[in-house]
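Q: What residues go here?
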């Protein structure tokens, strides 16, 4: 049953299901029924069973597997003598009486080139099936967002990458927006994670690449300060790629990519309409907007402390307690 789901689309064929059902024990029946019920309704797996007993005369357990009202039961009547004669007449009286085809290649007639049949249209999911599919997809993407927050948080607390944790101040660097057309930083990455704008880890790494390319473009290797910033930008990109490639399961990333393509085909937006908003500047009690200590506290609130990974046996490099200690050392 699991092999059928893994190699879908597939068919699970059970000939003479009443005889098989009477032969196996109750344990096999229970396992068979449980595995069958665990297959999602939208999965391309077909259970095909045959019997010479009418559907109404089958045991109740077998009848429960097939719904007669949903056209899951097909009745095939025995062919008549006239139908048998018409079927075999051409085969026996004509084709068998003809001489065998010549082995001479020159006598062979070229085969007709037929057009390629168009692919079948995908089955339209019902409203309930579509809702169940979207819930499963959202569960997967939620695990991805939790993991991406953890990766971004590791980069934020790394002292080497402090220059990339917040947007460039236009007052300090007036010509930055004129040179860099698409600014990016780690705080913006966190906001995009909260707004569900990363359906795959590959999309997340594209913005990490953008941070690095912006730093290399605006800071030519002319003086030691620029060279150091370029070195740290490249280290940021290599560190992010190393963490994701080492910890993320390839099957999980493939599943996220399939969800992205599926939603694109269905015409639904990958970003959910509801997302978690970051706290406002005046949301911390007893703090003023111009207070620098308050701003530091807001930075701490904006950094996620959850640690998770979508890999079943992933490496948890940090614990929540350790992260809290590091935050206190850095900001308090």
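A:
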């Amino acid at each position: 049953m699991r092999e059928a789901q893994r190699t879908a689309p597939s068919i699970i064929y059970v000939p003479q299901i009443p005889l098989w059902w009477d032969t196996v024990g109750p344990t096999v029946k229970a396992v068979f029924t449980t595995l069958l019920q665990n297959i999602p309704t939208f999965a391309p797996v077909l259970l095909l069973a045959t019997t010479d007993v009418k559907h109404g005369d089958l045991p109740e357990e077998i009848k429960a597997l097939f719904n007669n009202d949903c056209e899951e039961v097909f009745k095939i009547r025995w062919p008549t003598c006239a139908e048998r004669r018409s079927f075999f007449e051409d085969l026996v009286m004509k084709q068998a009486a003809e001489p065998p085809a010549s082995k001479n290649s020159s006598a062979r007639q070229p085969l007709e080139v037929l057009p390629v049949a168009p692919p079948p249209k995908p089955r339209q999911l019902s409203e309930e099936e579509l809702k169940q599919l979207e819930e499963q997809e959202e569960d997967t993407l939620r695990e991805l967002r939790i993991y991406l927050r953890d990766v971004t948080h590791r980069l934020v607390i790394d002292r080497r990458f402090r220059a990339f944790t917040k947007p460039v101040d236009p007052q300090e660097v007036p010509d930055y927006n004129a040179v860099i057309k698409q600014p990016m930083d780690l705080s913006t990455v966190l906001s995009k994670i909260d707004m569900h704008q990363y359906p795959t880890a590959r999309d997340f790494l594209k913005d990490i690449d953008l941070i690095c390319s912006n730093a290399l473009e605006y800071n030519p290797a002319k003086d030691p300060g620029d060279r150091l910033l370029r070195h740290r930008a490249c280290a940021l990109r290599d560190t992010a790629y190393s963490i994701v490639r080492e910890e993320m399961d390839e099957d999980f990333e493939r599943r996220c990519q399939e969800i992205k393509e599926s939603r694109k085909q269905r015409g639904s937006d990958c970003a959910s309409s509801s997302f978690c908003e970051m706290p406002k500047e005046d949301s911390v009690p007893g703090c003023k907007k111009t207070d620098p200590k308050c701003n530091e506290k807001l930075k701490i609130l904006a950094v996620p402390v959850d640690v998770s990974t979508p890999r079943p046996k992933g490496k948890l490099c940090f614990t929540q307690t350790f992260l809290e200690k590091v935050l206190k050392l850095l900001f308090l």
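A: Context that may help when evaluating the design: The two ends are 56 Å apart (CA to CA). The mean pLDDT is 78.
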